[in-house]
UniProtKB/TrEMBL annotation:
Alphabetized UniProt keyword annotations: Aminoacyl-tRNA synthetase, ATP-binding, Cytoplasm, Ligase, Nucleotide-binding, Protein biosynthesis, RNA-binding
PANTHER family: TYROSINE--TRNA LIGASE, MITOCHONDRIAL, TYROSYL-TRNA SYNTHETASE
Protein name per UniProt: Tyrosine--tRNA ligase
RNA-binding S4 domain ranges (all copies): 351-413
Native source species: Lentilactobacillus rapi
NCBIfam families xref list: tyrS (TIGR00234)
SMART domains in alphabetical order: S4
Enzyme class: ligase
An annotated GO cellular component: cytosol
Pfam families: SYY_C-terminal, tRNA-synt_1b
EC numbers, comma separated: 6.1.1.1
A GO biological-process term: tyrosyl-tRNA aminoacylation
InterPro entries in the cross-refs: aa-tRNA-synth_I_CS (IPR001412), aa-tRNA-synth_Ic (IPR002305), Rossmann-like_a/b/a_fold (IPR014729), S4_RNA-bd (IPR002942), S4_RNA-bd_sf (IPR036986), SYY-like_C (IPR054608), Tyr-tRNA-ligase (IPR002307), Tyr-tRNA-ligase_bac-type (IPR024088)
Length: 418
């Protein structure tokens, strides 16, 4: 199965400029293929990850990925699907974001063969206004540009000239990469179709109609309920472990709906057809075991954060499920309890009844606290406490930073030592 057949099986092809031509090309040689990302933030989220997963598949199939960090285009902003102009960033912020995104790309692509990361600021910044208008602007028909979906969707509320010309700049990128980096294919999300075809048109006008360049887009990924894929209840799921911890990242994937999990296995893992078919059977016959979700979480977390992060996430998950949090490290407590109810407490040792009522307000009264302690409903750092005279000493565990309380079977609290 060649790469295009595999992508079709995975449901990852939306539009192609010339399927037969592209199919012949990828069967004949190692092809340069690029995906661009503008540095509008200092981390990708999992929605951004989708085209780069496809680019990774091309890399594993022996092709040559080129990642374009849009230091030039990111300085002006593309006309997004939103009904308003992007807020322009300072160049210092753009530079900071470029460095962060470059690091993430090196992590994703640096293990499996050659790849390139380039920055379109390097060539776009050298264009004078007159060069831009004479050499490129003359080749773009305004009527055609107005009919591009991303522009047409903004005409009612208005679009600035800056964002209107974005498709010209992206087309210049494709032409530059074709000339200097042996790139013949541009890959992007479904919303990039207009920009991609503008690029192929420009290359054909400048280099000749027989220039072999192609565009390929990926479908918009929707959940089974019809909503857009990519967000959790807390917002975006980031690749930056400081924004979304590896444990949270793992939990996002393991909590996917049975109706979606096989599609996500096709999109976000490198498992074979046979492996995914076997997991699909298990979803049908034993959905309660959630084996497909577990495999999805393992594969994507390892791809983004590494195997050690998977082991850590599984360790935290097992500890929270069993209640045995005593074996967790301080770093694992930081991850696993990030979104738990949190209170601040003093480092001074204190009687458990006073601590539960006065310091943390976990218990509503001393009577209720004594009752829960006597009934074995209170665990401190994983240990069941049934002595109302027990002294809580925050320095005893987790480097003196935390005390973990479990009340009943599932209710956890994180006491953070001031």
């Amino acid at each position: 199965m060649n790469i295009l057949d595999e992508l079709k099986w995975r449901g990852a092809i939306n539009q192609e400029t010339d399927h037969d031509g592209l199919n012949d090309l990828v069967n004949k040689k190692s092809v340069g293929i690029y995906v661009g990302i503008d540095p509008t933030g200092d981390s990708m989220h999992i929605g951004h990850l989708i085209p780069f997963m496809i680019l990774k598949r091309f890399q594993l199939a022996g092709h040559h990925p080129v990642i374009v960090i849009g230091g030039g285009t990111g300085a002006i902003g593309d006309p997004s699907g939103k009904k308003s102009e992007r807020v322009l960033q300072t160049m210092d912020q753009v530079k900071h974001n470029e460095a962060a995104l470059t690091s993430q790309m090196e992590n994703l692509f640096g293990q499996d063969g050659k790849f390139e990361i380039v920055n379109n600021y390097d060539w776009l910044s050298k264009l004078s206004l007159l060069d831009f208008l004479r050499d490129y602007g003359k080749l773009f028909n305004v009527n055609t540009m107005l009919n591009k979906e991303i522009v047409a969707s903004r005409l009612e509320v208005g679009i600035s000239f800056t964002e209107f010309t974005y498709q010209i700049l992206q087309s210049i990128d494709f032409l530059h990469l074709y000339r200097h980096n042996d790139v013949q294919v541009q890959l992007g999300g479904a919303d990039q179709w207009g920009n991609i075809t503008s690029g192929t048109d420009l290359i054909h006008k400048v280099e000749g109609a027989d220039a072999q360049v192609f565009g390929l887009t990926i479908p918009l990924l929707l959940k089974s309920d019809g909503t857009k894929f990519g967000k959790s209840e807390g917002g975006n799921v980031w690749l930056d472990p400081e924004k979304t911890t590896p444990y949270e990242f793992y939990q996002f994937w393991i909590n996917q709906d049975d109706r979606d999990v096989i599609r996500y296995l096709k999109y976000f893992t490198f498992l074979s057809q046979d492996e995914i078919a076997e997991l699909a059977k298990k979803v049908e016959t034993a959905p309660e075991k959630r084996e497909a979700q577990r495999k999805l979480a393992e594969e994507v977390t390892e791809f983004v954060h590494g195997k050690a992060a998977v082991e850590q996430a599984e360790h935290i998950s097992a500890a929270l499920f069993s209640g045995d949090v005593s074996k967790l490290t301080t770093a694992e407590i930081e991850q696993g309890f990030k979104n738990m109810p949190t209170v601040e407490v003093s480092a001074e040792p204190l009687n458990i009844v006073q601590w539960l009522v006065d310091s943390t307000k976990i218990e509503s009264s001393r009577r209720q606290a004594r009752e829960d302690i006597n009934n074995g409903a209170i665990r401190i750092n994983g240990e069941k406490i049934q002595d109302v005279d027990f002294m809580i000493d925050p320095s005893k565990k987790f480097d003196g930073k935390f005390v973990i309380v479990r009340r009943g079977k599932k209710k956890y609290f994180l006491a953070r030592v001031k």
